[in-house]
Amino acid sequence: MYIIIGQNAPNSEYFCLYCECNAKSRYNMDLSWSHTGNAKGNKRPPLFPVIDLFNYIPDELHILLRISDVLIMECNWNWTSLMGPDKEILLQYFPVSEFISGSRGINIENLWREFYRLYKILRKSSHTDKEILEFEKDAKNWVRTFCHPTVGQMNSAAATPELYRKDDVTPYMHVFAMHIPYFLRWLKEKGLSLRLFSTCSVEKKNHEQVKLFFGGTTMGGGKKTKPVVYDILVFENRQIFYLINDIPNEITCNNINIQDNG
Ligand SMILES: [Zn+2]
Asked: For position 180, what pLDDT does the model report?
């Protein structure tokens, strides 16, 4: 994505595809950024100059995956290989407060649940203007809570401890709070919604293919001379052929037991 638009990498000072926010201001939800594109981070001309910047729609699945990675990483659990639906379940139900003690655990658990609630809103197939406005306010507040500094005397019982550091606010969180509301409005005008642009079906397909073709390398005798892509295409061609010609792709096997009564 960054290569296509000719931008610096997402870990650079001017990290955003859509605005000129710098890395140090990323946590600050009181600033507002106009959707002008990012001339400061441009290192090369875009590959497809004919495509307007705002036709590059942020992908909701990666917002879910990458933001939940940050939330989950805190717990030192290596769950980054989980798929979208698993992470949704985790965000929705996992009892974080049983694993992180005190008010910090409770606050982090609330942070997970609130992120899940907001994610469900952005996944809706249509939104009212009011819903988008609320989403914008709540998403910014979510980032504020995420990196809110310790309130009160450190280590005292009355203190509200910091949940995450300001530096932990990622470019995805910036897009989530600062640009998603803009895209929701813009797509709404055109009778569209963000979920139509999700890459989750492509990712699912990729996962299935990896499982089927890379997972079973010894399938059919082990050593293969043809590349895996060849197998994938052959397999899918057959599936399509079966579908078009209405051929069942399961075989019902009847075993007849013949008993020798003689
Ligand atoms: Zn931005």
From this structure: 94
